[in-house]
Amino acid sequence: MLIDKGTFVRIRRTLLQPSERAENLPEDTKNVPLKMWVKGRLLEESELFDYAHIETVTGRKEYGRVKEVEPPYKHGFGDYVEEIMTIRQIVLNDMYGGESDE
Amino acid sequence: MTCMVVSQMSKTYHEIMNDKRRIMKESVGIDYEGYEFEGIGFDYEKMMSDQGYPISKIRDIQRKNMVGDTPLIELHNLTKYARKYAKKGYGARIFLKDEAANLSGSYKARRAALSVYKAKELGYKGVIAATSGNYGAAVAALAAKEGLKCIIVQETFDSNNVSQPEILEKARKCESYGAEVVQLSVGPELFYTFLKLLDETKYFNASLYSPYGVNGVETLGFEIAEEMMNKEGKYPEAVIVTNAGGGNLTGTARGLKRAGASKTRIIGCSVDLYGLHMASDKDFNRKSFTTGHTGFGIPFTTFPDRSDVPRSAARPLRYMDRYLTMNQGSVFFITETLALLEGMERGPAGNTSLAAAFALAKEMKEDEIIVVQETEYTGAGKHIQPQLSFAKKNGIELLFGNPLEEKPGTNIIFPENGSYIAYKEIDLGILRTSYMKHIDTGSLSEQDKEFLMQELGVDRKTLLEYI
User: What domains are defined for chain A?
Assistant: First the structure.
């Protein structure tokens, strides 16, 4: 998929390979690379997953693999959690449980 | 191609780390060396008074930015709830400072207001802060108001590209104020990226640990003292502060003292994350709190100068009378209670000290007052529901029972009922001993000893026991 110059994208770049990471890290962290994600506008046409340059909102130039086009926000309020209903029941019972309905 | 890029990067890594002192000095606008004593100490109070502002000036800066003067509310229903488990004559009145009312939704705006003001005054074109929390949003909002550029550096993803929903929300909020957000995978090398950005942009380091970053919180303590005296004719018996990097506790305590509330007890509190390693890729998404926890609270209390400036202005051990921990389940429980009984939906992390206040109130007399000094905004991602839903997806078991038996990273235990809400106490003696491990006690001068007495908050006799 060819992405137009000027499109708002998210890029990712590896900053440090596992062998280059700081000392005194736990093994699980030491075994994986340090990566960076930044958003900005493409300074050149690019294929998805190719390396490209972008300009960020502060005007900095960055370089990395194009991971997402027009990146969305995907966080929300999550799934239904039954335990929250239980907490509510406990609190209301603690507070008003002994009193009769009026 | 990739290899070439990487080898260039690693060279830069060492260059940058070796150039740390210069970059820091240029980006904070403070000559820290001028405050150093011979030996181990430095002139903390001189640094704070030279670089800080009087309360009237801080208030002026904050008021112009819609920061401060937040409501201090008595939580009648929560107090009534806590009293159900107190013996006769006990159950302190619980008050809450609704810091969510600040610009950007947390008390961090107090700190950001001063940092950004200073950056503007010193002529910097932009500000940078390394934070995954509310401080990022606060710096971004204040920078937007002052017309400065802003970059926030966040530790965001584990190696599977998965992030805490709370951190994703903070990124969104920063971007809504026009800031650039640089997101990284887990690891302390975030500091390298942070330094590199400071060096590249020549922006101001809006550090949480600078004198301004702590000075800005003093109004919070000051307002509590002033308002309590006006309303109740006395200062509160205790103020409880959620503790991570130490600035919240330090600033609040200093503000209370400035107002004259010298007898108010300062109680620190953190979410108990014992057993989870803060630099671990695997542990990163097994916790439900990204700040206000022991993973920051303990190391920053016992070694404040581990921060991103040469001398941290946040020195909690100087001011702390007690240090408590709460489990994750109790903080979530009290977050839901606050919504149900008081109609206040506020973010979970900021309610850490509220959960502890619920437990502490039972031990205090009913005419005594305990003030919980912050709340934070809540929303998509940073809310009990997405955070618990995320925990479940990461294999964390949600249970009801005795919260003191919670195993961080394995389960979250909610109290079976209100009577189970309890804190654990951290012995300040252990923290002081741990602080002293960073000190070479071989040849301490008189000035060194004076410094250590202040640092540990102890008298000479006690200090000698630690030496």
Answer: 2-73 (2.30.30)
Candidates B166, B168, B331, B389: best to mutate against A (most CBs of A within 10 A) is B389
- Residue B440 CB coordination number (10 Å): 10
Contact B336, A88 (CB under 8 A): yes
Residues of B in contact with A94 (CB under 8 A): 81, 84, 417-418
Are B180 and A38 in contact (CB < 8 Å)? yes
Whether domain B56-106+214-426 has CATH 3.40.50.1100: yes
Domain ranges of chain B: 56-106+214-426, 428-466
Nearest CB to B280: which of A14, A28, A38? A28
> How far off is chain A from B400, nearest CA to CA, in Å?
9
Distance CA(B206)–CA(B50), nearest Å, equals 18
Beta partners for residue B135, in sequence order = none
pLDDT in tens, chain A (102 residues): 899 999 999 999 999 999 999 988 999 999 999 999 999 999 999 999 999 999 999 999 999 999 999 999 999 999 999 999 999 999 999 999 865 444
- Which tokens is A1 given? 């998929």
Helix (H) or strand (E) holding B97: strand B93-97
Give A68→chain B minimum CA distance, Å: 13
pLDDT digits (tens, 9 = 90+) for B229-260: 999 999 999 999 999 999 999 999 999 999 99
Gap between the Cα atoms of B92 and B363, Å rounded: 8
In chain A, positions 18-47, which contact chain B (CB-CB < 8 Å)? 20-22, 25-26, 28-29, 32-40
DSSP classification of residue B66? T
List the structure tokens of B445. Answer: 């001068």
Give the pTM. Answer: 0.95
Contact A70, A8 (CB under 8 A): yes
Q: Give all strands of the β-sheet with B265-271 in edge-to-edge order.
A: B72-74, B93-97, B369-372, B238-242, B265-271, B322-326, B424-426
Provide the 8-state DSSP code for B36.
B
Cβ-defined contact of B5 to A60 (cutoff 8 Å): no
Task: With CB atoms and an 8 Å threshold, state whether A73 touches B172.
Answer: yes
In chain B, count H helices and then E strands. Answer: 19, 13
Return the SS3 of B371. Answer: strand
Residues in chain B within 8 Å Cβ distance of A58: 126, 149-151, 179-180, 201
